Automatic annotation (TrEMBL):
It comes from the Bacteria. Residues 536-604 form the Bacterial Ig domain. InterPro entries: Big_6, Ig-like_fold, Peptidase_S1_PA, Peptidase_S1_PA_chymotrypsin, Streptogrisin_prodomain. One of its GO terms (molecular function) is hydrolase activity. Residues 1-31 form the signal peptide. It holds the Pfam family Big_6. CDD domains: alphaLP-like. This is Streptogrisin-D. Keywords: Hydrolase, Membrane, Signal, Transmembrane, Transmembrane helix. The chain crosses the membrane at residues 647-667.
């Protein structure tokens, strides 16, 4: 087959709903131009940390803003890598946590095959113990048991580092007696008694936004704004806590002007839309914005804003800062990334269960619905806290000893966005990511699909050589372009940008570009099958190709041998050099009429002398630039988790938040209690 001029036919754009899978993600840093920022970057620049957050970081965490920016970048990338590993490894994934002392990702797996995958991504790995799925199932079973214990159980949490489930009991002898009655759920279970009452962060005192019905002079509470968001039609809305909603007669949100005492009439911001509180252990709501534009920015509490750079899942050990209208910025550490608080007091005589993540940043009344961030990365919204009856962040245990604050956030990626229909966080619009092909990659004639990610529902404009097309990203930000007719063998360049319109305002990105080559289709490898585990250190590699093609086989990027495909297209290569025990990548390419094809590859695992899969052969990184990518150009050698920086997952969307700020307010609020009567809060 000879080279031909690239086709000039039109491209056909196809929306790819859910097309991006974990296995399709790859390094895309090379796909970005120098001027464009990667859409899936978790980088936190110290310049993005406002002065008020710097004060909180130094006060609550005891480190500088510079050190925290580096740590938050590592933690964000660790979160992205952890989520990817959870999807790829399935039942072999035992959970992950972040070590803030070494800025390193730690992963537990159930077997050595999974360990090698995690090590290759730069994680420090422990092999053994239950899977995260088993821990989650055990936690759910214990939460169900706890709901029938007459309020004696305060919460159930998964503790990844100890591969156990922690059951927290309320104070008192009756609750303590339950420690010996916890059912056997197949994993290790530990019990502890709570240190303070767990309650919703009351919607009172302070400023953010008011909830109520101004026509009836009924302002029943105050909460903090969370994250600006939008739906598929580009309509603006806010995400906040579900318990901030009043009722059908008190479903309006009114603007609170920062640093000003309120005066009637209040300015209407919008109406509550979707509200989920108590159902399925949820605590989130949307506010439909009327007549206002929203921005992907967070309040700096000094009259300015700063844009967030990403949205990540909470990770045990990640240090976060909470932004709320009462306490503004406070910081702490995520102690449990998955927890259920049982029997939380909603302040109206009702007890509810809430799923979320637990952290040690101080939270007080009025902070509900506010943003929880890791530097400039969005993590969740504020829901509840454990505290003393008189409030405040200086809480004590049952013996009066001071302890760290205990707060509950609800995760954007786990507890909010998956439950909303076609809603995304409004985020910074950077250049879209072209995930496949990679820059300089040779793709087969049968693999002509351009795939990538962008902001959800954004319009992606792409040009391949002199052909252009547009496509809308789906709810997960995935997009796909296919040529109307096959592109002949040759070299191609692709350039892409995106635009997003929310509430009448359009955000446009810079361009990103790369070059790829269309090559003859790859040969097939039939034996050994992908993932084969064998004690045969010199396997025969065989498959099919174009009749007469020259097939070259390589092992771990080293050429091993070649063979000619026969008249039926069959070929076989006998590996002569023994492969050491461990995992190996076998690849094959074919040459047809002087043109080299794309590559086919399989993983082949040689068992050790005991017939077992050996431990990983590549040493994990240690946070000091000693990982598999140490010394690579354009990488932070002190940032172990940065090896996962170039992977993006569905529902992980780059962006920011907008919050309302201000001073403490002296208002008289009416609250409906459990009996339906009115009382003064």
């Amino acid at each position: 087959m000879s080279k031909a001029s690239p086709s000039r036919g039109l491209l056909a754009a196809a929306l790819s709903a859910g097309v991006v899978t974990l296995g399709a993600f790859g390094g895309v840093a090379s796909a970005q131009t120098e001027e464009a920022s990667p859409l899936n970057s978790a980088d936190v620049n110290v310049e993005s940390i406002p002065s008020e957050m710097r004060v909180a970081i130094e006060r609550d965490l005891g480190i500088s803003a510079e050190a925290y920016a580096e740590q938050a970048t590592a933690a964000g990338n660790a979160s992205i890598t952890s989520t990817r590993l959870a999807g790829e490894l399935g039942d072999s994934f035992g959970g992950a946590w972040f070590n803030s002392d070494t800025n390193s990702l730690h992963v537990k797996v159930t077997d050595n095959v999974a360990a090698q995958v995690a090590v290759d991504l730069g994680a420090e790995v422990e092999v053994g113990g239950p899977s995260l799925g088993q821990l989650d199932a055990a936690s759910a079973e214990l939460a169900s048991w706890a709901s029938n214990q007459n309020g004696l159980v305060a919460g159930v949490s998964v503790d990844v580092q100890s591969s156990s489930v922690v059951v927290t009991l309320v104070n008192g002898e009756e609750a303590a007696s339950l420690a010996g009655q916890v059912p056997n759920v197949g994993v290790e279970v530990t019990t502890q008694q709570q240190t303070a009452e767990r309650r919703l962060v009351d919607i009172n005192g302070g400023d953010g936004y008011f909830t109520g019905n101004q026509a009836e002079d009924a302002i029943i509470g105050v909460c903090s704004f969370g994250f600006p968001a939008y739906d598929a039609a580009g309509s603006p809305l806010y995400l906040t806590a579900g318990h901030c909603y009043g009722d059908e007669d008190n479903s309006v949100a009114y603007r609170e002007i920062p640093n000003e005492q309120p005066s009637l009439p209040l300015e209407r911001l919008g109406d509550f839309g979707t509200v989920s509180f108590g159902e399925d252990n949820n605590d989130f709501a949307t506010i439909n914005i009327t007549g206002d534009s929203i921005a992907p920015a967070v309040n700096t509490w000094n009259g300015d804003t700063t844009t967030l750079t990403g949205v990540v899942a909470p990770l045990e050990g990640m240090e976060v800062c909470k932004s709320g209208r009462t306490t503004q910025y406070t910081c702490g550490e995520i102690t449990h990334a998955a927890t259920t608080w049982e029997g939380v007091n909603d302040g109206q005589g009702n007890l509810v269960d809430i799923d979320g993540f637990e952290h040690s940043a101080c939270t007080e009344g009025g902070d509900s619905g506010g943003a929880i961030v890791a530097g400039s990365l969005a993590v969740g919204i504020t829901s509840a806290a454990a505290g003393n009856a008189d409030g405040g962040c200086e809480i004590t245990d049952g013996q009066g000893n001071p302890i760290d604050p205990i707060s509950l956030g609800v995760s954007l990626t786990a507890d909010v966005l998956p439950h909303l229909n076609d809603v995304a966080v409004l985020t910074e619009v950077n250049a879209p990511v072209i995930e496949s092909p990679e820059d300089g990659q040779r793709i087969g004639e049968d693999e002509q699909v351009i795939r990538g990610t962008a902001n959800p529902f954004a319009t992606v404009s792409a040009q391949i050589n002199d052909q252009s097309a547009e496509v809308q990203a789906d709810a997960d930000g995935a997009w796909e372009l296919r040529p109307a007719s096959a592109l002949p063998v040759g070299e191609y360049s692709v350039t892409a940008s995106q635009s997003l319109t929310v509430g009448g305002q359009t955000y446009s990105s810079e361009d990103t570009s790369l070059t790829f080559y269309v090559a003859p289709a790859a040969p097939s490898i039939l034996e050994p099958a992908d993932g084969t585990e064998s004690d045969n250190a010199t396997p025969t590699v065989s498959g099919t190709a174009e009749p007469g093609a020259i097939v070259t086989v390589s092992v771990d990027d080293k050429e091993a041998s070649s063979a000619d495909a026969d008249a039926d297209g069959n070929w076989a290569v006998n590996l002569v050099d023994e492969l050491p025990a461990g995992s190996h990548t076998i690849t094959a390419v074919q040459v047809i009429d002087g043109a080299e094809s794309a590559a086919a590859s399989v993983t082949y695992i040689v068992l050790d002398g005991d017939g077992e899969v050996p431990p990983p052969t590549t040493p994990p990184g240690d946070g000091e630039g000693e990982g598999p990518d140490a010394g690579a150009p354009d990488q932070d050698e002190d940032d172990l988790a940065d090896t996962g920086a170039n992977f993006i997952l569905p529902l992980i969307i780059i962006g920011g938040v907008a919050l309302a700020g201000g001073t403490f307010l002296a208002l008289k609020f009416r609250r409906r209690n459990a009996a339906g009567t009115d009382g003064v809060a």
